[in-house]
Amino acid sequence: MRMCLATEWINRGARCTVHTTKGHCMTKAVKVAAATAALVSIGAMTANATVTGGAGSDAPLAVSFTSTITDDGVGGAAANGGANWTVMIGYTPLAISPFTGVVTVFGQHMVNPHGPPELAPNPNVFSAAWLLPSGPQSYGASLSHQSAHNDVWSATLTPLTPPGPGFAQYTVGVTGQHIPEPHQYALMAGLGLLAFGAYRRTRS
Question: What pTM value is reported for the model?
Answer without folding.
Answer: 0.69
